Amino acid sequence: MSLFEGIEAGIVRELIVVDGGSSDKTKEIVLACGGQFVVSRASRGFQLSNGVNLAKGDFIFILHSDSVLEIDWSKNIKKYFNREAGYYCRLSFDIKHPLALLTSTWANVRSKIFKLPYGDQGLLIPRKLLIENGGYSSIPIMEDVELALRLKGKLYGMPIVITTSSSKYGEQGWFRKGRKNIIILIRFLLGADPNKLYNDYYQS
């Protein structure tokens, strides 16, 4: 857990894990660190919304469970704690592969140009700014994009690398999953029902 570094440095003062039904030792690890472990129905938007509502700190750093921050991130992130904006990380994958590099490059370009970072890039944001802009929606998919659209003009990149799992790309194929992601994004931006998108995404 890359958050250990932040806990030891005193940056992470409140640890909240909203679990959607894992069967590993996540709960034991979180409690051993003095964190708060919450069981929730498995819906990322709902889980994130729950976590935000429980948080009490002035700043919230939102991370997905399959994303890992680079070493020394806690030293580099300090300068972003006193700004009235949200910040996301630079995406990379946990394997070295041309298609992994292509996918992460596209994600970083999309984030910079269109201001549409995905949740696996992490989000550091003042709690006040997040709440004032409606927080996370409890929709089953695209909750990260929906929030980014409301925060347009207030999201910026940080030079901190976050590495996410490539397992789903390996299972489905890089081109197939990449194409599916783009199609779902376009449909969402055109106003498609998130529940229909969720069913199409996970059943295809």
UniProtKB/TrEMBL annotation:
Record localization: Cell membrane
Membrane spanning stretches: none
Native source organism of the sequence: uncultured marine bacterium MedDCM-OCT-S04-C694
Name of the featured protein: Glycosyl transferase group 2 family protein
Molecular function per GO: glycosyltransferase activity
Keywords (A to Z) from UniProt: Cell membrane, Glycosyltransferase, Membrane, Transferase
Cellular component terms per the entry's GO annotation: plasma membrane
Record-annotated Glycosyltransferase 2-like domain positions: 14-88
Gene3D superfamilies, sorted: Spore Coat Polysaccharide Biosynthesis Protein SpsA, Chain A
Pfam family, one: Glycos_transf_2
